[in-house]
Design goal:
five-stranded mixed β-sheet; eight-stranded mixed β-sheet; 1 helix; mainly beta; Neuraminidase
Length: 303
């Protein structure tokens, strides 16, 4: 079943079929610096914090995102990617580790939590050093994660003890957002170059050759992506945009639905007919003397 948002057919996915009261959602605490957001089937939102190394949650009837996994719990250092796993009823969380004073990258890990209680479930190691970013899950339950630092995509299949490299390709420098569409291919963007690629999956599960798609207009620092239709992606752009990208063959049509978000956009999810976006404010993060102001999840109506 599809609904029409801004003239675009969008599937009523579990998250897309839910609804919230609408309006922006303040995040409690200062210096949160959110990097990603996930949505559950009832419209619950989870927000990952780089600044606080925790996860915030807003239930459907709540007007504020509150501390849920407290800052620094379970040894987490920098919470990046988040993804709600409907099949396993889990919240997947990417912890990018801590950067030392000399700039060395921390060791990344991928963790899972009970999405209702916040209780920890699993902790998977990952060879990437400080680079884990966006997450997505294939129809067979395989989990993929982008390694921003080293142009790699890692994979975990049920029963594996750790995430292992799946695709290592120089074309994917600063690889960021990941999402699957109905054709079964993995779609990948690159943050610095602004590229959008299709990666087919071979019968043996290995990665095909990345194929760059032609964009109707540039994607500017694309970040997290989410599937919102059989051929449609919701894309956060770091320059302060939320866009819908529709793919037909090798062509990708970009439609900006919100612009001018001066604190950037790191990720967005669809709940009903509203996209909820997080603004990271990373430009205000390096100096602890600078007050970045309040943080909120921004509601972007698509009707």
């Amino acid at each position: 079943m599809a609904t029409w948002l801004l003239g675009i057919a969008v599937l009523s996915t579990p998250a897309g079929a839910a609804s919230r009261a609408g309006g922006d959602i303040p995040i409690e605490d200062g210096r949160v610096f959110p990097e990603n957001i996930a949505a559950g089937p009832d419209g619950t939102l989870w927000i990952g914090s780089v600044g606080r190394a925790g996860v915030y949650r807003a239930l459907p009837g709540e007007r504020t995102a509150k501390r849920w996994i407290v800052p620094g719990a379970h040894g987490m250092k920098r919470v990046m990617g988040l993804y709600y796993d409907a099949g396993r009823h889990l919240l997947w969380v990417c912890d990018a580790g801590v950067r030392s004073a000399d700039g060395a990258k921390g060791v990344a890990s991928i963790r899972t939590f009970d999405p209702e209680t916040g209780a920890p479930r699993d902790n998977f190691s990952m060879e990437a050093r400080g680079g884990c970013n966006d997450l997505t899950i294939a129809s067979d339950g395989t989990v993929y994660v982008s390694d921003f630092e080293d142009a790699r995509i890692y994979r975990w299949k049920a029963g594996d003890a750790a995430f292992a490299p799946w695709l290592d390709d120089a074309r994917l420098a600063a690889v960021d957002g990941l999402a699957f569409l109905a054709d079964g291919a993995l779609y990948v963007n690159t943050f610095r170059e602004g590229g959008l690629y299709r990666v087919g999956i071979n019968p043996d599960g290995s990665a095909g050759t990345p194929q760059r798609l032609a964009l109707s207009q540039p994607l500017e620092r694309p970040d997290a992506m989410r599937t919102i239709g059989p051929d449609t992606l919701l894309v956060a752009e770091g320059v302060g945009k939320v866009s819908i990208v529709t793919i037909r063959g090798d062509q990708a049509t970009v439609r900006v639905v919100r612009d001018g978000m001066t604190d950037g956009v790191a990720a967005a999810v669809l709940v009903g007919d509203v996209a909820y976006a997080v603004q990271p404010k990373f430009a205000k993060m390096s100096d602890p003397a600078v007050d970045p102001g309040a943080f909120a999840v921004v509601a972007v109506p698509l009707r």
